[in-house]
Amino acid sequence: MTGIAGQKSALSWVVNITVLALVVLWLIPTIGLLVSSFRDRDAISASAWWTAPLSVEQNFRVRAPAAETRAIDGGFETAIGGYEITGNIADLIAAETGQTGPVTITAFGATARAPVAAQPGEVLPLSRDRTLSITADGDYRFFAPAEITRDPSLYFAMEIPPSFDLDNYREILRSDGMDIAFINTLTVTIPATVIPILIAAFAAYALAWMDFRGRGVLIAVVVGLLVVPLQLALVPMLSFHNTIGIGQSFLGIWLAHTGFGLPLAIYLLRNYMVGLPRDIIESARVDGATDFQVFTKIILPLSFPALASFAIFQFLWVWNDLLVAKVFLPASSESWVMTVKIADDLLGSRGGDWGILAAAAFTSIAVPLLVFFTLQRYLVRGLLAGSVK
Amino acid sequence: MSPLLQGALTIFIGVGGCVAYFWASNVVLDKVLFPARGPNAGRNINRANLIRPWLFLLPALLALGLYLVYPVFGSFSRSLYNRTGAEFIGFGNYRIMLGDPEFRTALTNNLLWVLIVPAASTFFGLLIAQLTDRLRWGTVAKSIIFMPMAISFVGAALIWKFVYANNPDIGLINAILVAFGTEASIDVLQIPFWNNLFLMVILIWIQTGFAMVILSAALRGVPEETIEAAILDGAGPARVFFSIKVPQIMPTIVVVWTTITILVLKVFDIVYTMTGGNFGTQILPSYMMSYMFRDDGRATAVAFVIMLIVLPVMVWNIRQARKEM
């Protein structure tokens, strides 16, 4: 329809490019987080995440051990005898930093002023007739005519291949207690998703298919409660929980999430149930089925899509919640959920440790993303039922 | 007992209890109280049917009443007392609050949020919905734009910390600035006034997907004939969009707009995680949390102010719902 003759191709190019630009814009921040979560702290501060797939060249300095000096006999062929140190750069790196693995030298030098003066394989002449040569795979030879007393410094540039590993994840899960937070989030989320569905389904059936006085008013109340700010409930309900002895606990947060999730649950389910075909329900009633039977045998199975929609909503909402968890769960670290853990602990104690923060954030959003991409259909359907009606 | 075990037990007791309640209460009603036999069978059936809806509704009404209706009054009455809750001070908390410059900052910032975030999200949502409508890879594009909806506000804030970071090797914005030749990197979250906009970008990033999904469905619902007629009359694509499609989906646009407005008034996570309300970025929900656990009187007063702001939308929502019934 939009393709009016002659303009179609130009217009569709513009549309394609605009959408592509928007998609990239939307995706970039998340990709930055994902990439950073696999890089270690040094790599993150040395180069930006968007250059992470490329090798970077970095300059290093190691000291050759003077203790390994060997005297060379001048003999017949060499005019001067002297002293030399030979070995491989990789061993020196291993001795200084503990990192092992082959090295690729791209340039080398012997002074801090000219750290990359020579190409690998060259013999670099130094002052007082000394020479240094380093090959591309790291073999070095330092030669001096006089005895070597101090460790000579070797400067070189090395290709650092892009490195991605799971160290950040390992660290947050093992030593930062993110594993406990993950389990706590799961513990909060599942009952807080299952219980409101059940309660809401019965209420929605009553509001959709049973005749009684005050039904209209109740529906209006539910619609009104949809927008009541959660903030109002925090202080009174926490003191109520304290009065009845629940206090700040998992039981308390399950109850709270149940209460806060109900208006949307009832609203969504009622809207869906009202649309179910009247004939089926009427004929079941004529056949002598009670309301309880109609509900369990007919309405519940038919309402599966709406139940799934709400379940996904509530799951995402509870999993991602920070406010309710901060107020209704104990403030001690063993009952932190992931959002609280990140916002109140990691951002403070690990503020500059970007790799750790990224891994923690990604751990907390991995499950919702999985749910989102596998069950997107139901989520969209629920959104539409909740808003367009 | 480990929380996980406790959780499993709660699901079991909760679900089992609910099922048992609904089943047992129905049995009691039908078999014990008003059995459908004997001389009064007819009257009993009617009576049972009068009571049954309330059996179905009882748990939901209890939970709604306790967690959403009671707090409106509970919070208001608590806000009339002092910090400890021992002394009645009338509207003292509100008076102190109005004199607090930080509260005024929070109020004006919140006003900015309410003006900008729903408008921008709806605009981008509508734009993307229209552009992807006839695109072959439109579903994939929409799926990606929609994705932030699944991410927590805390997670989103962290994601954007990597964009805003005050270090050209981490923060994308500073990397771009440095590439264009600025000398020192800047902390965008500390620029007065503009930092608010940078925080809003995060919520717009999340909410655009929501607006897009709903508006996209609404656009699909626009009758083809109206569009065809407009094209036959010589209207171009822009004209068709603004004069034919937008007016027809206006009710949906309003719903999306108000839904996001309500959300904006509740979200404290982003400000809390990004700036903690510093550098003049305070908004009402985060202002309230700064008093939570310290001064319940003040906290409830702020909550009630939020309620007052939401009230017109609530009334409008109820009237819409009643009209449809």
Characterise this structure.
The complex is a heterodimer of chains A (389) and B (325). Chain A has helices at 8-37, 41-46, 89-97, 167-174, 178-209, 215-225, 231-244, 250-274, 278-286, 291-302, 304-320, 323-328, 338-349, 354-387, and strands spanning 56-63, 70-72, 82-88, 105-109, 123-125, 131-134, 139-144, 153-160. With 389 residues, chain A is α+β, with helices and mostly antiparallel strands. Chain A folds into two domains: 56-160, no CATH class; 169-387, Orthogonal Bundle (MetI-like fold), CATH 1.10.3720. In chain A, the strands form two sheets. A five-stranded antiparallel β-sheet of chain A has the order 2-3-7-6-5. In chain A, strand 6 (131-134) and strand 7 (139-144) form a beta hairpin. The longest helix of chain A has 34 residues, at 354-387. Chain A is elongated, with a radius of gyration of 34 Å. Chain B is mostly helical and 325 residues long. Chain B folds into two domains: 3-78; 96-324, Orthogonal Bundle (MetI-like fold). Chain B has 14 helices and no strands. Chain B has helices at 3-33, 41-78, 92-99, 101-132, 138-146, 153-164, 172-179, 194-220, 224-232, 237-248, 250-264, 269-274, 284-291, 296-324. In chain B, helix 1 (3-33) packs antiparallel against helix 2 (41-78) and helix 2 crosses helix 14. The longest helix of chain B is centred in the N-terminal third of the chain and has 38 residues, at 41-78. The radius of gyration of chain B is 26 Å and the shape is globular. The mean pLDDT of chain B is 87. Chains A and B meet through helix 1, helix 2, helix 5, helix 6 and helix 7 of A and helix 1, helix 2, helix 4, helix 5 and helix 6 of B.
